[in-house]
UniProtKB/TrEMBL annotation:
<keyword id="KW-0963">Cytoplasm</keyword>
<keyword id="KW-0143">Chaperone</keyword>
<dbReference type="InterPro" id="IPR037124">
    <property type="entry name" value="Chaperonin_GroES_sf"/>
</dbReference>
<dbReference type="InterPro" id="IPR018369">
    <property type="entry name" value="Chaprnonin_Cpn10_CS"/>
</dbReference>
<protein>
    <recommendedName>
        <fullName>Co-chaperonin GroES</fullName>
    </recommendedName>
</protein>
<dbReference type="InterPro" id="IPR020818">
    <property type="entry name" value="Chaperonin_GroES"/>
</dbReference>
<dbReference type="GO" id="GO:0005524">
    <property type="term" value="F:ATP binding"/>
</dbReference>
<dbReference type="GO" id="GO:0044183">
    <property type="term" value="F:protein folding chaperone"/>
</dbReference>
<dbReference type="Pfam" id="PF00166">
    <property type="entry name" value="Cpn10"/>
</dbReference>
<comment type="similarity">
    <text>Belongs to the GroES chaperonin family.</text>
</comment>
<dbReference type="GO" id="GO:0051087">
    <property type="term" value="F:protein-folding chaperone binding"/>
</dbReference>
<comment type="subunit">
    <text>Heptamer of 7 subunits arranged in a ring. Interacts with the chaperonin GroEL.</text>
</comment>
<dbReference type="GO" id="GO:0005737">
    <property type="term" value="C:cytoplasm"/>
</dbReference>
<dbReference type="GO" id="GO:0051082">
    <property type="term" value="F:unfolded protein binding"/>
</dbReference>
<dbReference type="InterPro" id="IPR011032">
    <property type="entry name" value="GroES-like_sf"/>
</dbReference>
<comment type="function">
    <text>Together with the chaperonin GroEL, plays an essential role in assisting protein folding. The GroEL-GroES system forms a nano-cage that allows encapsulation of the non-native substrate proteins and provides a physical environment optimized to promote and accelerate protein folding. GroES binds to the apical surface of the GroEL ring, thereby capping the opening of the GroEL channel.</text>
</comment>
<dbReference type="GO" id="GO:0046872">
    <property type="term" value="F:metal ion binding"/>
</dbReference>
Amino acid sequence: MGIKPLYDRVVVRRLEAETTTDSGIIIPDSAAEKPSQGEVIAVGDGIALDNGKLRALAIKPGDRVLFGKYSGSEVKVDGQELLVMKESDILAVIEHSQIEEKAA
């Protein structure tokens, strides 16, 4: 991937949207909302503090995150649609144990 975000910005790839409900109803693409979950692809070096030093980000590549519906800017890189957003736009990190429990 040829993209490196600056400072406190993060590059996120949206996860695929659910196409069926829990009861089995199929949701057409035109009615589906964009997912608010994604996987972090790249992170910047950190946020610049008043003393000139950088504070490293709490997010790292590979993290699965939740973000607001209208967060970030959509960009297309190497044919992939990605989001570039500030670390503060990320609402939460989904821990791997919660993902595995849902899948089972």
